[in-house]
Structures are given as C-alpha cells and as structure tokens.
Amino acid sequence: MPTLEFPLQALATEVEAALHTAADVLGSTVAPHHFGERFRFELGESPRYVWVPTRTREQKPTASRAVDEPRALMSSQEYVEIDCWGTTFAQAWAMRQNVLRALHAVDARLRIENGSWVRPSEGANQAGELYRLEVSLGVPTFDHYVSLDDGTYPAESTVVVEEVEGLLQLTADVDVATTTELTTHTH
C-alpha cells in the first residue's frame, strides 16, 4: 500500500539531498536542516536551516492529473518558512542562494512568496544573522482514507469521469471500450 508523506517535509528532505550533491562537487559542507517550530529559536549551531510550516490556502481542484494519480477532492497551497541562519550576513545570503537553487531543481510546483531579514530580538536570534524565506507548494487532497497508524492508504480501482464546463472528459486511467462501456486501470 502507498504511504502518505507530509509534502513540505518531503520537500525539505529532497532539497537537503540536492544541496549535498551540489556541495560535494565543491568539497563544501551543507548546513543541517531542521523541521518544525521547536527548532526556530534554539540557540544552536550556525549555519543551519529551519523549515517551519505556517499555513494552508485551499483551492479548487484542477481538471487534469497525472496518469497514476488518484482523483483530487481539492488542492491547496502549503506555506513554509525557511530560516537561513548564518554566522554573518554573507553566509546567510549564500544559504538563501543555495536553498533557492535547490528548491527550483527539485520541484517546479513551488512559488517563492516572500523573503526578509529578521531583526535580532532579545533572546531569539542573537547568535547569528537570519534571512527568512517563504515558499508555497501546490498539493492535492486525494479521495482516500489514510491510516493514522502507519500513513498507508489503499490502492484503489475506480472509474473517474469528470465534467468540466459541460464537456465530458475521461481521465487517463479510463479506457473507452465502446461508446457505452468503460473499464478502469488499478492504481
């Protein structure tokens, strides 16, 4: 059975791997990546990246989908802030450059929303310079129940016929045997 991953955490993992690949060419190091609010203001090591999911904006589903992708009930933009903690402004800026390059390399569905320098505050970011980048990723919500125990969901066999603006469209998982018969592929 397939397993559902949190898309922003999966993106962070892919970006970190892309950064390691690029850094290996130069014989350079990559700042560690942490995921979640609890890592944001730890007075830990610099340089480091901290990924913090912030919000979701729901959207209407699109009519098209990948061949083996289940029907989407809706889609959303998932927002994440990526903190680029450097020991200097130059290092934080280089981290911003590197993470943007890696983001574009691993996923074309993302949008760069915003970016800004964060001013030091008492007890918060006193141990370095912080550039915060906001990124969003388009994510579908699929029509299946996900197990809370292990994140799996059943592979389904369904006929999906979609009507868009009065036109009947057959999705890629449907074959037309005759004008009245429909058969399905198993996902």
How would you describe the overall organization of this protein?
- By secondary structure, the protein is an alpha+beta fold.
- It folds into two domains: 7-154, 2-Layer Sandwich (STM4215-like), CATH 3.30.2000.10; 157-187, no CATH class.
- The protein has two helices and nine strands; from the N terminus they run H-E-E-E-H-E-E-E-E-E-E.
- The protein has helices spanning 7-26, 89-106; strands spanning 33-35, 48-59, 72-86, 110-118, 129-142, 161-164, 167-170, 174-176, 182-184.
- The strands form three sheets. A five-stranded mixed beta sheet has the order 1-2-3-5-4. It has a two-stranded antiparallel ribbon with strand order 6-7.
- Strand 8 and strand 9 (182-184) form a beta hairpin.
- The chain is elongated.
- 18% of the residues are buried.
Helix content: 10-25%
CATH homology group of the largest domain: Phage tail protein-like
CATH topology of the largest domain: STM4215-like
**What is the CA-CA span between the terminal residues?**
10 Å
Largest sheet: number of strands, sense, barrel closure: 5 strands, mixed
Question: What is the H-and-E element order?
Answer: HEEEHEEEEEE
Residue stretches low in confidence (pLDDT < 50, at least 5 long) are 157-187
Domains (count): 2
Q: Please give the CATH architecture of the largest domain.
A: 2-Layer Sandwich
Number of strands: 9
Across the major sheet, the strand order is 1-2-3-5-4
SSE layout and pairing:
Elements: H1 7-26, E1 33-35, E2 48-59, E3 72-86, H2 89-106, E4 110-118, E5 129-142, E6 161-164, E7 167-170, E8 174-176, E9 182-184
